[in-house]
Design brief:
heterodimer, A: 95 residues, alpha+beta, two-stranded antiparallel sheet, 3 helices, 3 strands, 9% strand, B: 484 residues, Arc Repressor Mutant, subunit A, 3 domains, 15 helices, elongated
């Protein structure tokens, strides 16, 4: 598996990363090296082995259905570049 | 029952699948301890987990899982004892995490079935493809400021069940019946309040058209439709649009569309190609969700009577028609009310009062059955008063009107207003004799029964004289005897 500069540009766009044109080629090289390293895993026969989702041998911790949080509008909005009337205010996202 | 649509090249069949987002009824959110209640001040029901502050970790609400499993069981679906939470990645102003925690390849509930109630007692089975748990996003408001969008995260992180049907529906009526039935089931088991106006139930509608029996056509998805009526209208419009495009030599492009309620049309959202590249991957913050089979069995044992079971029982035990039984189970509260009225009484009478006078009164007052001024116990008493001849059916209508206004006890109303039926034969006989004596013309017309319709006029006169209180059966009997 390998990626070309077009794929790199697309991944960058999906992640909202600004990658200058002249960085695409070097990045593709780096990513391909990483992929080649991971590719070593295909040397292992994984037929009939279910995909591993977690390496932690624990049960998913559960919470009771009670209200224990909230009522902290000021904290929630503290880092917002702009907040008005208790709302986050962002540049209009609809045409 | 499939309803075909005609075009210039012949008949077309519409194929419909629905994805319903149903808000799980719970006190707190799927992965945080913030409240879920509707209508709070903006951003007051938000924990730092819901706001996606760095370092915050999700902890699953066990009750939300229970609700999803309960729903799966009510849909006769497979419960997956091992399921995975994935991240669905996309950027939007009301999604602070930059991804939605959802379930992709291994949902908590697999295939199930739902039985639709169609016209004339017909039924149809529609397959359920899957049900998974996911987080809701926040709410964006675009109309509060000329250049800004306002974002409220109160809904962010609220648990949703996405319930996906198989593409088994063939008309807008069937889609409507599916939504209504699903809503009824969810309300019976208390896993979602089904309130479409408040957004607790929203539907994405997949529509395609094909020649009957032919291969499936390309589908379009109409997003976020929030009422049964709009879903049906959107389907009608979209099916016609697709047929017109194809018959004009065009091709259907797979895309996401919006239903414009005001204009009654669907419009392309003109989404960019990569918008659908969600790059799902297992959420590293959450371990797989493993369920104990004994726990699932316990939920199953605790399921209440479901609408289909209840409908069959009402038909069997109370002799209700398919239609009446369907009405009685359409809302859990109506069924409870009806059963209290019908218990130990004539079920047909009970059903007539509930679907007739009571529904009319509730409609006129604009209240639901739980807010009915006439309690089930009082309506039952009213029926008893008719059954034991204390009042006639006609007087009962008047008593009922008073009950609607005052919420009073029917026996007391009858007592206070002096509406008790007169069954004293001697008293009725006196009136009958008087009417006969005063109206020789009508007696001649009746002619000893040769003109039987005239008896109605006599009954009317006697009732009028007795202010409606004479027992109609006795009046009829006496008149027939006397007029010979």
């Amino acid at each position: 598996m390998s990626v070309d500069t077009k794929t790199v540009a697309r991944i960058a766009h999906l992640a909202r990363l600004k990658v200058p044109e002249d960085r695409l080629e070097p990045l593709a090289g780096e990513l391909n090296q990483l992929l080649a390293w991971v590719e070593q895993l295909s040397e292992v026969n994984t037929d009939n082995v279910p995909p591993l989702t977690s390496v932690v041998h624990a049960r998913l911790p559960r919470r009771d259905d009670v209200v224990t949080d909230g009522d902290r509008q000021a904290d929630v909005l503290a880092n917002a570049p702009d907040a008005q009337n208790g709302f986050f205010a962002v540049p209009k996202v609809i045409e | 029952m499939s309803k075909l649509i005609s075009g210039t090249t012949g008949e077309w069949e519409v194929v419909i699948g629905l994805e319903v987002h149903a808000q799980v009824t719970s006190n707190s959110k799927l992965f945080s301890g913030a409240a879920t209640e509707f209508g709070a001040e903006p951003n007051t029901q938000v924990s730092l987990v819901d706001a996606a502050m760095p370092g915050m970790l999700p902890v699953i609400n066990a009750y939300c899982v229970e609700q999803a499993v309960r729903t799966g069981l009510a849909l006769d679906a497979q419960i997956n004892l091992y399921s995975i939470f994935d991240r669905k990645n996309y950027f939007y102003a009301d999604l602070p995490q930059g991804y939605q925690i959802s379930q992709y390849k291994q949902p908590v509930v697999g295939e199930g079935i739902i039985t639709l109630d169609l016209k004339d007692g017909e039924t149809k089975e529609v397959g359920i493809e899957r049900l998974h748990l996911e987080q809701d996003a926040g709410k964006s408001m675009h109309d509060q400021h000329p250049t800004m969008t306002y974002v409220d995260l109160n809904r962010s992180g609220v648990a949703l069940m996405e319930i996906v049907s198989k593409p088994d529906m063939r008309s807008s009526e069937e889609a409507g019946a599916y939504l209504k039935k699903l809503r009824t089931i969810l309300r019976y088991i208390g896993t979602c309040d089904g309130n479409m106006e408040q957004g607790s139930m929203r539907a994405d509608v997949n529509v395609s058209v094909r020649k009957p029996g032919g291969p499936l056509g390309t589908r379009c998805e109409i997003k976020n439709v929030n009422s049964v009526r709009f879903v049906q209208q959107a389907i009608e419009y979209e099916a016609r649009r697709q047929i017109d495009v194809i018959e004009d030599g065009g091709k259907i492009v797979q895309e996401t569309r919006l239903y414009d309620v005001a204009a009654g049309v669907t419009r392309s959202m003109r989404s960019k190609e990569e918008a659908h590249d969600y790059r799902y991957f297992p959420d590293p913050d959450l371990l797989p969700l493993e369920l104990d089979p004994a726990w699932v069995d316990k939920i199953k044992a605790g399921l209440p009577e479901l609408p289909d079971e209840k409908k069959n029982r009402l038909m069997r035990d109370f002799g209700l028609s398919v239609y009446d039984a369907g009405v009685m189970v359409s809302e859990p509260e109506i069924g409870v009310y009806f059963e209290e009225v019908a218990k130990g009484r004539d079920p047909k009478q009970a059903s007539n009062w509930v679907t007739g006078s009571l529904f009319a009164a509730l409609n006129a007052k604009g209240v639901s059955i739980t807010e009915s001024p006439v309690t089930a116990a009082n309506l039952g008493k009213l029926i008893d008063l008719i059954a034991d001849n204390t009042i006639s059916g006609r007087i009962a209508k008047d008593v009922f009107e008073i009950m609607v206004e005052t919420g009073g006890d029917p026996a007391k109303i009858v007592e206070e207003k002096g509406l008790k039926q007169i069954t004293d034969t001697g008293f009725i006989e006196g009136i009958v004799d008087k009417i006969i004596a005063e109206n020789p013309g009508q007696v001649a017309q009746y002619d000893g029964g040769a003109n039987p319709k005239v008896i109605g006029w006599f009954v009317g006169q006697v009732m009028k004289q007795s202010q409606g209180k004479a027992n109609p059966a006795q009046v009829n009997e006496l008149l027939k005897k006397k007029l010979g």
